[in-house]
Amino acid sequence: MSPQDEAAALFDQVDTDKDGVITYKEWQDREMSQQRNPFDLGKFLRGDTNSDRTIDRQEFLRYYMTNHGQV
């Protein structure tokens, strides 16, 4: 599976309401399920490059590729 395909699959997993964007709440829920600090707002904001308080598929792909698959 290519990194782009991995990113797309992960995006679909995190976007639980399937509206095409990841909200901070969806991000927090994933962080808690991974036993990470769910209140790491900085990590979310680094992915939200247009500052609209959501992460769309393109932003997520850029974030995923920049961070070598570490989300």
Shape: globular
Give the amount of beta strand, in percent: 5-15%
Average the pLDDT over all residues and give the rounded result: 90
Q: Spell the H/E element sequence.
A: HEHHEH
Number of discrete helical segments = 4
**How many angstroms does the end-to-end distance come to?**
17 Å
E-strand count: 2
Largest sheet: 2 strands, antiparallel
Strand order of the largest sheet: 1-2
Q: What percent of residues adopt helix (DSSP H or I)?
A: 40-55%
Unreliable spans: none
Topology:
Layout: H1 3-14, E1 21-23, H2 24-33, H3 41-47, E2 54-56, H4 57-66
Antiparallel strand pairs: 1-2
Helix pairs in contact: 1-4
General description of the model:
The chain has 71 residues and is mainly alpha-helical. The chain has helices at residues 3-14, 24-33, 41-47, 57-66; strands at residues 21-23, 54-56. Helix content is 55%, strand content 8%. Helix 1 packs across helix 4 (57-66). The longest helix has 12 residues, at 3-14.
